[in-house]
């Protein structure tokens, strides 16, 4: 008993020293995890942060655990040792067979047998966990438990300090835009962002997803692709997982020859894990993603003008009439409400409705656009009248990643329409991230930025009567 007290004394000293060394949160937590594992004489330890909104646990620091174990997949806080979130210590005597362990097969392959977890508190709320792992089963004495709780409390202090630092940084950055009185944002239990991105474009992509309020996890899973005897010889860790869309995204801003190697890995992953959805976004894809906001790497590019005409006025009119005929047939005997998103949809919606032979009501929404400034998507102008019990057709100019539509459809569905369908003039399926169902599609287009017939680049070209490709110098 006295020996463990002495060891714990040394361990605490080391942890406090690390906490005072002015390191990043990640490095401090790594040091805490190491001191923790050493003093408790276990094989590994990790510090986890709970994202209360998303319901996932994210690793903030770790020691002694394999990459395969650390990135065994998204850790759902409700499924993985849920009692810790109630504030109690959880002890797992045999991880491979315990129902509270979310990925028992990985525990087995990585020889994790014993797990003990303590809650990390911020006030009365649980904001994270401190977990220790051992290859052998053991029991926790009351002194062990006390130590675990003490170290978890230290992690709570570290989290709060990091959160404060991040908050101050944000305030200094945006001191010009003080919040309006009476519109205080809802403060989450913790707003701490634990992720350290490997690359600037990853941070940008995360911002974009945040804007559209699409959940993301950074590198939550490593996929073994090849084995060498007992060990894994080739592994692939996609950058992002988007749980709502059940999609992994690998961002690559690298040179073409490296992309070829990446492509090979992605192909292998698809072969070995056919149920996994993964998208590879190249530098060009990513630039394209941001360019439509007149922002990002393409935003600064000089626009030369409008190149080839993709669809002439006549072609567009013919297609619009045929869509209107289909809609009129499908909704015969009913009345519909057509909802458009400003401003790109103006031309299309006005032509479309003139050819629909049903009672039609129209309404518009306007939503804010991504500016990379930490804002989230906002409805600037909502519908004029209720759509409850109505047959609603959401009309779009173009569906690209699908993130806009994903957001707007969720908003409209909450108003309980009788039915909700989507009609878009253009569908750029090759860039889709959010898998939204499109009921009526005018044309499917390839990976080119288009303008005209309502579509703009930085506010211009909407008045062209045809759809053309924007060319850049
Ligand atoms: P998403 O959210 O990525 O699907 O983007 C859809 C929105 O981006 C559309 O409503 C358009 O306003 C805009 N957009 C996407 N691609 C283009 C384009 O090629 N030209 C002009 N606007 C575009
Ligand atoms: Mg639009």
Instruction: Report the C-alpha radius of gyration, rounded.
Output: 26 Å
Bound molecules: inosinic acid, magnesium ion
Number of helices: 11
Count the beta strands. 21
In the predicted model, the low-confidence regions spanning at least 5 consecutive residues are 176-185
Largest sheet strand order: 3-2-1-6-5-4
Mean pLDDT across all amino acids: 89
The major β-sheet equals: 6 strands, antiparallel
CATH superfamily grouping of the largest domain: GAF domain
CATH class of the largest domain: Alpha Beta
Shape-level CATH architecture of the largest domain: 2-Layer Sandwich
Residue fraction in strands: 25-35%
Helix content: 25-40%
Measured distance between first and last alpha carbons: 74 Å
């Amino acid at each position: 008993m006295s020996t463990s007290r002495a060891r714990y004394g040394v361990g605490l000293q080391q942890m406090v020293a690390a906490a005072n060394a002015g390191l990043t949160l990640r490095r401090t937590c790594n040091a805490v995890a190491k001191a923790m594992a050493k003093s408790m004489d276990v094989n590994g330890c990790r510090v986890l942060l709970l994202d209360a909104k998303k319901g996932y646990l994210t690793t903030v620091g770790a020691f002694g655990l394999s990459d395969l174990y650390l990135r065994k997949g998204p850790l759902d806080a409700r499924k993985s040792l849920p009692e810790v979130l109630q504030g109690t210590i959880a002890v797992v005597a045999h991880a491979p067979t315990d129902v509270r362990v979310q990925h028992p097969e990985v525990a087995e392959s990585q020889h994790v047998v014993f797990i003990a977890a303590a809650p990390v508190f911020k006030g009365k709320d649980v904001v994270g966990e401190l977990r220790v792992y051992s290859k052998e089963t053991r029991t926790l004495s009351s002194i062990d438990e006390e130590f675990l709780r003490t170290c978890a409390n230290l992690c709570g202090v570290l989290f709060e300090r990091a959160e404060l630092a991040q908050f101050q940084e944000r305030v200094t950055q945006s001191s010009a835009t003080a919040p309006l009185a009476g519109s205080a944002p809802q403060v989450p239990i913790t707003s701490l962002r634990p992720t350290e991105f490997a690359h600037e474009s990853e941070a940008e992509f995360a911002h974009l997803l945040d804007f559209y309020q699409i959940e993301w996890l950074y590198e939550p899973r490593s996929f073994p692709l090849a084995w060498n005897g007992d060990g894994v010889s080739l592994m692939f860790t996609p950058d992002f997982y988007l749980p709502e869309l059940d999609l992994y995204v690998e961002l690559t801003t690298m040179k073409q020859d490296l992309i070829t190697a990446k492509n090979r890995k992605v192909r292998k992953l698809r072969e070995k894990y056919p149920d996994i959805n993964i998208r590879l976004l190249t530098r060009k894809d990513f630039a394209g993603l941001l360019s439509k906001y007149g922002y990002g790497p393409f935003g600064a590019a000089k626009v030369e003008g409008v190149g080839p005409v993709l669809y002439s006025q006549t072609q567009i009119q013919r297609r619009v009439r045929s869509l209107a005929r289909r809609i009129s047939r499908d909704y015969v005997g009913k009345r519909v409400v057509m909802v458009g998103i400003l401003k790109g949809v103006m031309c299309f919606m006005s032509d479309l409705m003139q050819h629909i032979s049903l009672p039609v009501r129209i309404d518009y929404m306007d939503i804010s656009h991504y500016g990379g400034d930490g804002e989230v998507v906002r409805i600037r102008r909502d519908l004029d009248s209720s759509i409850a019990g109505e047959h609603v057709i959401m009309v779009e100019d173009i569906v690209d990643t699908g993130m806009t539509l994903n957001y707007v459809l969720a908003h409209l569905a909450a108003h309980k329409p009788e039915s909700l369908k989507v009609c878009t003039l253009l569908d750029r399926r090759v860039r889709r991230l959010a898998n939204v169902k499109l009921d009526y599609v005018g044309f499917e287009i390839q990976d080119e930025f288009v303008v005209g017939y309502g579509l703009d680049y930085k506010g211009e070209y909407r008045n062209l009567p045809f759809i053309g490709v924007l060319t850049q110098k």
